[in-house]
Design brief:
Blueprint (H helix, E strand, L loop, with lengths): L1 E6 L2 E3 L5 E9 L6 E7 L6 E7 L5 E3 L7 E6 L4 E6 L8 E8 L8 E2 L3 E5 L1
Parallel strand pairs: 2-11
Antiparallel strand pairs: 1-3, 3-8, 4-5, 4-9, 5-6, 7-8, 9-10, 9-11
Length: 118
């Protein structure tokens, strides 16, 4: 089993930046990809970015690429999401996820960290 803990959320003014962190623990050797998702009130959850743990390749939501950057520190079992030029539309609960495969369903989810852009 894998546990995921997000941190780094908060309230920021429009145009500002935040960096979210997701620390994985447990059977981390089984993880091959991790990702960030978000869900705004009244909206469906949407994918933000994913990263292949072993190769480092990344995928982004087309609308967010260029403002958001996903990265990893394998030594710390941590994945980051750098968010720049934030707008109120980025306000959401942000979730970290992990999976054994590089595609398909996500096996593990964190509790989320709230990002509010005013």
């Amino acid at each position: 089993h894998v546990q995921l803990v997000e941190s780094g959320g908060g309230t920021v003014q429009a145009g500002g930046s935040l960096r979210l962190s997701c620390v994985a623990s447990g059977d981390t050797d089984t993880i091959n990809s991790m990702g960030w998702f978000r869900q705004a009130p009244g909206k469906e959850r949407e994918g933000v970015a994913t990263i292949n743990i072993n190769g480092g390749s990344t995928l982004y939501d087309v609308a967010l690429k260029g403002r958001f950057i996903i990265s990893q520190d394998n030594a710390k079992n941590t994945v980051y999401l750098q968010m720049n030029s934030l707008t109120p539309e980025d306000t959401a609960m942000y979730y970290c996820a992990a999976r054994v495969g590089v595609t398909g369903n996500w096996d593990y989810w964190g509790q989320g960290t709230q990002v509010t852009v005013s």
